[in-house]
Amino acid sequence: MQVKITAPFISKIFGLMAVLILILSMATPVQAEGFSANFRGTEIHEFINTASKALGKTIIIDDAVKGKVTVRSYELLDAGQYYQFFLNVLDVYGYAVISMPNNVLKVIPAKEGKRAALSSLKTPAEGDELIMRIVPLNNIAAKEVAPLMRQFNDSIGIGNVVFLESGNALLITGRADVVNSLVELAHEMDRSDQATVATVALQHASAADVVSIVTALFRDESRTRKGAQPGMKVVADERTNTVLIAGEPTIQARVKGIIQQLDQEKASQGNTKVIRLKYAKAQSLLEVLSGVSANLQDDKKSAGNGASVSVMKNMVIKADELTNALIINATPDVMSNLEKVIEQLDIRRAQVLVEAVIVEMQNADGLNLGIQWANHYGGGTQFGNAQAQIAPGFKGGMTEVFKNANGLVTGFYSGNWAGLLTAISNQSQNNILATPSIMTLDNEDAEFSVGQDVPILTGSQTTNSDNVFNTVSRKTVGIKLKVKPQINKGQSVLLQIEQEVSSVAENSSVDKDNLGATFNIRTVNNTVLVESGETVVVGGLLDKSQSDSKSAVPFLERIPLLGALFRSTSHKESKRNLILFIRPTVIRSTEEYEQESLRKAARFRSLNAQSLPLKAHADAQLEMVGSAANGVFKQVQRQIDAFYSQGGQ
């Protein structure tokens, strides 16, 4: 059979061959497809655009991405190799690539990788791509694993490992290769064969009851945290009364601690009470209770928030200063004893009203006290004979008591306080410096201070321009009185007295050496036992002063011989005696406090209303303590004798 070859047939043959050649030419590059990786001084944006075309991905470039790329490769890379090459180059220049949905890549500075939206959790990744993974744990605590795994993460700060306590899981971010390695490490550490079994033998509690409590406790805790707890199982062996704990060692230790607290004798189970104090301070009472028993070992700890704790054997005591309360956890027998002690200590403390008169007497003439006594019946008697003999065997009057006294003289006076004030103030030679009245608690300091700050020249400096700069400090001068009363059995009061009276000396500013002012300081430190309502007298602090004055008739004083007739000089010497009268009055109840307040108010009203020094007061509160109307004169003489009593002649 002969085939006739015609022109149309030949043209068809050539057409088919052309199509075949075209197909072969397109198939050959696919099999041998490769990408060149040679760049020299190429702008990084151009490098990213080239990679976008080669990878067939849309790439978003952050505005902060700048620079040039130089890299050389002598081999052709396939698509996967080229993508890793692209990631590695950007990593070298400090940039990171984040894979986004819809085949989109985003190039950002590596330091901003933590704040960027990372790739999907289900997307597999490798190399330097930034990704995020959540790894749930079953047998170990994520809180304990996270710090360890952070040490294996990126050192440049891109990656991070945090724990999700609510779900006991790890959240790992960073470069894909590092994150994948950490995920494998976490799974390896969370293997179930890491869990062990521990046994706890119970001495007092029931194993079934303990397991029930522990299981409920962890179930409630898991529900509160809204997440799973690390694998842990607690089983009761009732035959041996033992609890078996299966889980990670840290969980076992926690469960053991709870079981030990539950495994207590019923009689030894303590209770907790909050005792609100009425009068005592919680912190002070805590220190007392901590040392109640010598066989209790005290271990004080700070609890913060204005509270402190005393942890001792069989009891724990906490003082809450904000509410002034004691929180006590102790066994019933210890609790009962503590409540009795607290009841005896938490009592209303007695107070002491301290009244004082600080008086300065001139030349001892002020000791001629005309003591005015007033009584309820409206009569008044003034004892103005200061020269009368005041004690058997003692010659001289009242003024002789202090006239030759150069040291401290102390006496007691139990007469009327208002009368004493009137007697002192009626003497023109007396200068009452202060009459403080202070109420204070038993065994608490009471302080009174009145004065002024006096400038003192401490230095002087002259500059090159002849300007003088003075350095001045200040010193407080005046009257200071500090008293600490201690109430003893009965109505006696132990008084610790500290008194200081200071002033600037006369003419002290005229100093030849320019050494500054001179100060007169008189102090008393004394301790005395006195009955409530009795007055303590502290005196004999003498201060001598001398002054010279000159007077003359102008011009005539200069006449020779006769000039002496027209001028005169005088020398004056005076003594000032500082005396302190102080009277403590014990006040134990509200009624006594109100009575004392009424007495003070009546005294002030009477002093303002009186027109004559000898006016009698009808207020019974102003009567002489312990006296009756028919025994006034005898009582006065006994009080004066006691006040100025001295033995011998």
For the biggest sheet, the summary is: 6 strands, antiparallel
| Uncertain ranges | 22-32, 294-305, 364-409, 611-649
Distance between the termini: 182 Å
Q: Compute the gyration radius: what is it?
A: 51 Å
**Class derived from helix and strand content:** alpha+beta
The tally of structural domains comes to: 4
Question: Beta-sheet strand percentage?
Answer: 35-45%
Helix residue percentage? 25-40%
Q: Got a strand count?
A: 28
Overall pLDDT? 70
Name the overall outline. elongated
**Number of continuous helical runs:** 13
Organism: Serratia proteamaculans
Protein name: Type II secretion system protein GspD
Family: Belongs to the bacterial secretin family. GSP D subfamily.
Keywords: Cell outer membrane, Membrane, Protein transport, Signal, Transmembrane, Transmembrane beta strand, Transport
Which helices and strands occur, and which strands form pairs?
Blueprint (H helix, E strand, L loop, with lengths): L6 H25 L7 E5 H12 L2 E4 L6 E4 L7 H14 L2 E6 L3 E6 L20 E7 L5 H9 L9 E5 L4 E7 H14 L6 E6 L5 H19 L6 E6 L4 E6 L1 H14 L8 E6 L5 H9 L8 E6 L2 E6 L2 E6 L4 E6 L1 H14 L5 E12 L8 E4 L5 E4 L15 H5 L5 E5 L3 H9 L4 E5 L2 E5 L4 E17 L5 E20 L4 E13 L14 E13 L3 E18 L14 E21 L2 H20 L22 H12 L6
Parallel strand pairs: 2-5
Antiparallel strand pairs: 1-3, 4-5, 6-8, 7-8, 9-11, 10-11, 12-16, 13-14, 14-15, 15-16, 17-21, 17-22, 17-28, 18-19, 20-27, 23-24, 24-25, 25-26, 27-28
